[in-house]
Design a protein that fits this description.
Strands 1, 2, 3, 4, 5, 6, 7 and 8 form an 8-stranded mixed beta sheet that branches. The protein has a single domain, classed as 2-enoyl-CoA Hydratase, Chain A, domain 1. About 5% of the residues have low confidence. The chain is of the alpha/beta class. 26% of the residues are buried. It starts with a helix and ends with a helix. α3 links the parallel β2 and β3.
Length: 294
Amino acid sequence: MAQKSLLSMLPARLQFLLPAKYRTYAHPIVPVLRLSGPIGAIMPLRSGLAMSSVAPLLERAFSVPGAKAVALVINSPGGSAAQSHLIFKRIRSLSEEKKLPVIAFVEDAAASGGYMIACAADEIYADPASIVGSIGVVSASFGFHELIERLGIERRVHTAGKSKAMLDPFRPENPDDVVRLKGLQHKIHDVFVDLVRSRRGEKLNDSYDDLFSGAFWVGAEAVDLGLVDGLGDIRSVMRQRFGEKVRFRMIEPARPPLLGRLLGRRPLGQSSLIDPGEIVGTLEERSAWARLGL
């Protein structure tokens, strides 16, 4: 105990030399992690969120010495249900392990999977103009079978397993496939609803029939429905909670080494070559935001 007291008397600027358990902190510290973009596969032209990229940042955020809480700044239209759930579970696991509360702040949107991640927080705050909710499941595709017929293209698909080519966009839609898809969606939706109920509890206004319909609302409406705890931004809420001297520690992805960034550039003369899959991914991202009117 005496040794700890002596070590803690070091000037604040030298505290970093000490093991974390011996340091003293002049100001409350709150690590801040931004979770922005659609949730799911990440490609060069499509930034977003996936467990593989978010997990290391969460570990860093919850390991900041002297942290009073972890703040999540969320701006996502949603995406992969599985990736959203994995990120949600990792946040809850680290919060319980480190005994740190989590506070989420919604920017433009925390919708669908973005709201699922927000529910990992102990408290959620939004801007009056934020979009919140969309507690539902959606699958979107295209039907090209008439187009390829006009072009004189024959579609050949051979499978082992009658459902292996289910919902093939180059073949006419099979009603049995749609029934199967709807069943899967309902199961995922049940997981989402149970998660929201378990996290928001009695705060939810169950008298509103559309709460779990996939509808979304602006911030003030979300407060009335119990989807968020209040209106406010990270600076004002954290100052009110931890005092005017609270300090924010931004948790950001590590930049790749300079050599890696240089080698990752497209070769000279190929800068105009773009993977069609990346274009589709970018269009899907734009569509996800457009569904929210953003």
